[in-house]
Amino acid sequence: MTLGERIVSIRKQQNLTQKDLAEKLGISPTRLNYWEKDKRNPPIPMLNKISEVLRVDGDYLIGRLPESTKESSKPDKTNLEDIEEWLTDLLVSGGYIRTGEDISNRDASFLLNWIGVLDAWFDKNR
């Protein structure tokens, strides 16, 4: 199933019209139609917004997860803590935050989602 087909399928499951979804995304129905027909791909920032609006895992949306795991789910707490620690260390080493300073759970979640999108993009383009 293509990205466009997934968007259409989820949109219809949620009883949304193209116009409804386009309004929630802040785009024109014509632009959404291009994406749904796979004539164009949404930019990476919009993939995140689509997954948030449709409440689906971004990895499912781009085809990295099977149908049975399409609902967005949170990783277990132990894994999340390890990931947040790794992410904090990375941000400190890059000079984005100071040692001992934490990022919010919301920011960590956002960054981890982007890492997943980038990972999927690199896998697709290898």
Question: Care to describe what's here?
Answer:
- The chain has 126 residues and is mainly alpha-helical.
- Helices cover 63% and strands 0% of the residues.
- Helix 2 crosses helix 3.
- The protein is elongated, with a radius of gyration of 16 Å.
- The two termini are 20 Å apart.
- About 4% of the residues have low confidence.
Overview features:
63% helix, mainly alpha, 126 residues
The biggest beta sheet, please? none
* Total DSSP helices: 7
Q: What structural category arises from helix and sheet content?
A: mainly alpha
Number of strands: 0
- Which radius of gyration do the C-alpha atoms yield? 16 Å
Our measurement of the CA-to-CA distance between the termini, rounded to an integer number of angstroms, reads: 20 Å
User: What does the average pLDDT come to?
Assistant: 80
